[in-house]
Design goal:
This protein is an alpha/beta fold. It has helices at about 1-20, 25-35, 65-75, 90-100, 115-125, 165; strands at about 55, 60, 80-85, 105-110, 130-135, 150-155, 170-180, 185-190, 200-205. β3, α4 (about 90-100) and β4 (about 105-110) form a beta-alpha-beta unit.
Length: about 210
Amino acid sequence: MTKELLAENEKMVNYLINTGILKTPKIIEAFRKIPRHFFVPGEFIEHAYDDIPLPTYAGQTISQPYTIAFMTEQLEPKSGEKILEIGSGSGYQAALLGFCVAPKGKVITIELEKELVEFAKKNLKKVNIKNVEVIQDDGKLGYSKEAPYDKTIITAAAAKVPEKVIEQLKVGGRLVAPVNSGFAQKMMVIDKISNKEFKERNLGSFIFVPLR
Ligand code: SAH
């Protein structure tokens, strides 16, 4: 079983490389070393490598591999960085980022639902990722205790990026977040040029669960 699943992970990674989404060697290595089947509920394990979102708990989802690969590439995680994630879910996105910023960097990930906080923690242990801290809180407030952050990723959709989250990003830092636009969300990449100046790019339509 495990061997077959690992072979399927390899196929998924190759598919993401061939579509041109995965490019950066360190990110590709992260996808290879952190198999997605450790992050889906048992009953969906056979579908762990389909390019679709899957249910987790509390009516939430683990994002589609394509979306996770796309957002990770846009975030450009580098060794030593401190990254804030809002919406831990399964912990998969956080694990990939943790791998990329190791050994000195770390990831703080915030999740509203207790059940998912436990799920993410358990999954991170399975893949032996130790530089990710999962915190139960409202991510709209960011997490001031560890601020400022080199990078921030939001994995649930809102009408706009919460003010506090922008405040807690370093000057020179980058934020990747889905922002509501009509019936879907536009993927925004926001570079913080100074405390007042931002460079924003819209990278197209995606679908996300709402930030509550
Ligand atoms: N990054 C996740 C996917 C998360 S889906 C993964 O890799 O699996 C979005 C998550 O955001 C859900 O788990 C949802 O419970 C959480 N969420 C929604 N609103 C939130 C809020 N205000 N603060 C923190 N988490 C929130």
